[in-house]
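Researcher: We're teaching a course module on how sequence relates to structure. For the next exercise, students receive a sequence and then see the predicted structure as tokens, so they can try to spot secondary structure elements on their own. Here is the exercise chain.
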Amino acid sequence: MRRPENTTDSDPARSADEGAATATPNAPPADEGGGVSRRTLLLAGAGVAVAAAVGEAVGEPSAAKPSARQRTRMPTVFLPHGGGPCFFMDWTMGPRDTWKPLAAWLRALPASLPAKPKALLVVSAHWETATPTVLTSARPPLLFDYYGFPKHTYALTWPAPGAPRLAARVGQLLKAAGLQHAEDGARGFDHGVFVPLKVAWPKAEIPTVQLSLQRGLDPTAHLALGRALAPLRDEGVLIVGSGMSYHNMRGFMQPTSRAASARFDRWLAETCAAPAAHRDVRLAAWAKAPEARACHPREEHLLPLMVVAGAAGSDVGRVAFRGEAMGVQLSAHRFG
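Model: And here is the predicted structure for the students to work with:
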């Protein structure tokens, strides 16, 4: 986010280089948007109880006892990454504690997982390429791709090692699914990666790989990308989509935006909680959702959700966090 102007390997991380990276500054109603009725959602056992600020939504999709594999399988997570380096500065575009609830949820995220991840695979809203591209560096730098923020925020560090073996595994899975991909050994982690994960994993000890979005922002293509990556969940890899459930730079802090964001957010919660087949149909047609384009004039901040939903398989989603920032409603979603 730019500041407004006044306005195969069972242990894919095993051989990751543990050296420190060098920071390099670079000055709704249930039948809308997809046709799944509220009755269908309820019959699917996918009720969502939304947290007012921080906390997991309650509700179990099935009474069946989970298998050992299911108990250790990583979930997939879509998280809002906030505004620029918002967690590491005195916020001036609204109350000083604007981002405090989201920061608290991010800090609690590791303890909510079934085990410590062996690696993180992150799809950020801030990297788009013609072909899905995976970072292969063992020691990725940081890419300070935000502008107009305090000087000290361009000296932040988050020296998480890369994971070349995981990067290779990603390529293998995409190829097996008939999807083209490319590699990049030079680019650094953008702020959609290092800003929220510096809060969640401040020691930067978990090997991390970033995967780009594909230009064109086709939701169906990104759902397919996630499906191809699903096996990583059983290999100890946490798949993270980093974006925003609302991202309209002209809409932040505007009187009409909260109602619009709440309506879209309600549709998003119902969609993520639907059975997988219905969920994917609705996500593919997300632009028909209530207030869709008011919340996302351009959808790059929503597309990481498509990847984590695709990787979720039959796991239904739930609202993991819901709060308000800069006059709009924001949410995080977890599958599994």
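Model: If you want an answer key for the exercise: The two ends are 28 Å apart (CA to CA). The chain is about 30% helix and 15% strand.
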